[in-house]
Write a structure and sequence with these properties.
With about 350 residues, the chain is α/β, with parallel strands linked by helices. The chain has two domains: about 5-165, no CATH class; about 170-330, Rossmann fold, CATH 3.40.50. About 35% of the residues lie in helices and about 20% in strands. It has helices at about 5-15, 60-65, 90-95, 115-125, 175-185, 200, 215-225, 240-250, 265-275, 300-315, 325-335; strands at about 20-30, 40-45, 50, 80-85, 105-110, 130-135, 140-145, 155, 160-165, 170, 190-195, 210-215, 230-235, 255-260, 285-290. The chain has a six-stranded parallel beta sheet, sandwiched between helices. A five-stranded antiparallel beta sheet has the order 3-2-1-5-4. The protein has a four-stranded antiparallel beta sheet with strand order 7-6-9-8, covered by helices on one side. The longest helix has 16 residues, at about 300-315.
């Protein structure tokens, strides 16, 4: 499943190329509670078809009625980008389904250049990180290469957002946990690849849409060329496969690197990497293990939920409290259990 941003941009490009009028709406600012973060996009075709979202649904309905002839509106105007704001009053917030006190400002682009969107998508599909800067007076979009993700920004002259290739997950090990984790990652918009040199595991892989990579995991990690939108998770339970892959992963900029294992196994892995491979506590600081958040999970499906939650928190820049850290939560629980 493709990320929603890429799906919106691809749909807008295809509709424009086919001769349709298209509105591209972007969440520019929010005040109070908001259903969608800044930078969220929606493409609206002149006949009322929609991809993406900027709210829980009511604002989309208002835009459809206002700008499409299919619902009695005047259609899309020929104009420079416009700002619209929803939820300024309590009545509006209630009418548009915004949370209490929520206000939303959108930037509306009317029939953006399909050539510019095609160029943007070509760069994104090749793995580039791109800063798209929209002139709010002329509607012209400038595409600039970006070395690292930058914050979404908007002022009186420009709106700028960093767009990147889809998030990727590389799994080391093709067991049951990997299958559940791959499934969850796919519906969260990640491109998923799995590597396992053991035929008895990889030959039984049955999750559609996942790329199976052949080779030893450390070589695969190197060839995978991890970037800032990559996460790498070792779930083989075999140190001969996991350790070298993790060492290779730690040399790159992946936003999340982790390995399955109990607290004891995780401690032994760290000791092994320090003793035999010259690592240190500092160089292993980015290595997650035990992975996941503490939800008392025991089955592969529940463990996958906890791991995916931790990956998404890292992706979204959320620092998790100690109460959900597996090691800290289990230590606290053990301290409350009666002595036997």
């Amino acid at each position: 499943m493709e990320s929603i941003d890429l799906l919106v941009l691809r749909s807008a490009r295809d509709w424009l190329q086919a001769g349709h009028r298209v509105l591209l709406a972007t969440v520019a600012r929010t005040w109070g509670s908001s259903p969608r973060p800044v930078g969220s996009m929606m493409a609206l075709r002149s006949d009322g078809r929609v991809v993406g979202s900027v709210s829980g649904g009511c604002i989309e309905d208002d835009l459809i009625h206002r700008y499409t002839t299919a619902y009695g509106g005047p259609g899309l105007p020929d104009s420079s980008p416009q700002r619209v704001r929803y939820g300024v009053t309590a009545d509006e917030a209630h009418r548009f389904g915004l949370p209490c006190g929520g206000t939303l400002e959108l930037i509306l682009e009317f029939s953006p250049s399909w050539q510019s969107l095609a160029q943007l998508l070509e760069q994104l599909d090749s793995g580039q990180l791109v800063r798209r800067q929209l002139d709010l007076h002329s509607g012209a979009a400038t595409l600039l290469p970006s070395a690292a993700p930058e914050q979404f920004s908007v002022d009186g002259e420009h709106m700028a957002s960093t767009l990147g290739p889809g998030y990727r997950l590389l799994l080391i090990g093709a067991g049951a946990l990997a299958e559940y984790l791959a499934t969850m990652a796919l519906f969260n918009g990640f491109r998923v690849s799995v590597c396992d040199p053991r035929p008895e595991y990889i030959d039984g892989w049955n999750v559609a849409g996942v790329e199976c990579l052949v080779g030893m995991p450390d070589d695969v990690v190197r060839d995978f060329a991890p970037d800032v939108r990559t996460c790498i998770v070792a779930v083989s339970h075999d140190p001969k496969l996991d350790d070298l892959a993790l060492l290779e992963a730690l040399r790159g900029p992946a936003f999340y690197i982790g390995a399955i294992g109990s607290r004891r196994n995780s401690q032994q892995r760290r000791a092994r990497l320090i003793e035999h491979f010259g690592e240190s506590d500092a160089s292993l600081a980015r290595l997650h293990g035990p992975i996941g958040i503490y939800i008392g999970s025991k089955t592969p499906a529940e463990i996958a939920v906890s791991v995916m939650a931790e990956i998404l928190a890292a992706k979204n820049g959320v620092e998790l409290p100690g109460a959900v850290n597996v090691t800290k939560a289990k230590q606290a629980r053990e301290q409350t259990l009666p002595a036997t």
